[in-house]
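Researcher: I'm preparing a figure for a lab meeting and need a structural model of a single chain. I don't have an experimental structure, so a prediction will have to do for now. The sequence is pasted below. Please return the structure as tokens so I can convert it later.
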Amino acid sequence: GLAWGVREGMAQGTECYEFSLDTECGAVVDYTVGTDPEGQAFVFDNFLAEQVSAIRMLPLFRCRRAIIRLVCAAAFPACVDGVVVPACQGDLCDSLQTECGPITEFLPGLENCSAFVNPPVGVPCVTPGLPIEAPIPVDTCLPEEEVACCQGVYVQGEKTQECIIPCPVWAYSEAKDKAITFILYVQMFVNSILCVLGVVPFLTDAPSRSFPNHLPLIICVVSTLLTVFSGWSLYYGGSEDFICYGVGEQEDYTVERVKDSDCITQSFFFALFTFLYVLYALALNVRMVLFTLSVGDGGKSEGFVIQNSWSHALVCHGLVLTISFSLCIALLVETVQLKDELNSVNVGKDAIAVMVTFGSFCGISNNIDSLGFYVFYIPYTIFTVCNVIASTIVLIQVFRLSLRLPSVLAFAQWRAITISLYITISSIIYLGFVYSSINSYETSSEKANRRVFCSFSQPTNPEPGCKTLEGLGTYYGLAVVNFLFVFSTGGFVAILSFLSQESVWLFYKDLFTGHPRSLFGRSAEGGGSGSRLTRNRSSMRRVHTVSSASQSSV
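Model: Understood. Here is the structure written out token by token.
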């Protein structure tokens, strides 16, 4: 109503004036108008200033820009050669609806575009030349000298001068989050080096590459890749470039538009390699369960032992890969479908099962109401429980065998048992961190949204009492322990399974002295870890048979 009233009060032959107000409208009105400077100030101060001030901390800054473009262009039509040219209000309102989305229901008078239409066909109209991507500095903050222009979760950007949520958002504090990030980067480099040094020699040995002897190799590789993808931001350009949105000299880093494709990609691979390493650990556990059971019953159940056959390999790898990719693709599909619904009101990114944590890492949301909780954490919990059961059975069997057949297990089996136990324990620690940080009354995302709403909804309150987004994380000590255990799996497996063997270092000695040989070329073991396992099982059966015979004779 205001825009049309102003426009209809002007007639042809009106004198045109430069727009002289140094306000938000000054960034939008880049043409001459039919209102003199005094009238410009009157219109803005009495009809626009309060509304412009009220939206200065609107969570979507592109929405704020769209609103200012519409109301300023409608209030100050263009004047060309003494002729008033109205604004293309319908087009500007359509742009507002696109940028603001569901927020329009909180904007009285802007719920729909029924009050804003373009002039009749054939009548020219004008659209401000300022693109929606261009920032509009916050200048109107009412009541003047009583309130801060940006408060609570917001700060005034150094480049855009708009009220923004700074990025990255520290889960604990900048110092604590950077410490965790540093731990992750160190683990990434150390694990990668140890895994390469440990795995390469075994790739030259055919029995070590065969199924199921290669399970520790696979666990080492996938757990190292988990660490590498988790530390993606290091070689991407830092946490700001990876997590935050902000390009060019006119943009501040902000969480208003997280680079969704980057976070979605990292979260997909994080979920994939996490599933792979916990499922391959479960396969290793199942192998040891069947092996120890077959030894304990004198070989009666030997037919159930996982062996080097294409059928066993197909079942094992087929199940692991199918389950892992199916869960991750389900998460990805739903994530992409919900991607367009993102906005900074949902700071936790629970709508797409992605959240920003530790300033440099995108992971799966543990909000119990989010998709990620049911597609990632529930299956991971089930796999961990299975690992706990399998590890318990193995330990019980090992204890029983140690009483009946001392020293019956070779060091190769102890390695496999230790690897399974380590992954099971690290999984329990990880789940402990996840479930302990779930607040049944209010999640971190809900806290963030409440703090954003607190800041936005009190634009005239000098002391709103709204907190920043920093410090939403919980149990910092448990988070550090979780990072140390989970992201050290690759290095632990490499040291225990590979680098602890003298033959590996002899392999490298031969390699650097110009006499490369296969891994076990120096020893009489010949077949490597696979043949040792077979010989150990055979020797165990012989020991069991001899023991039984002795008892019978007695």
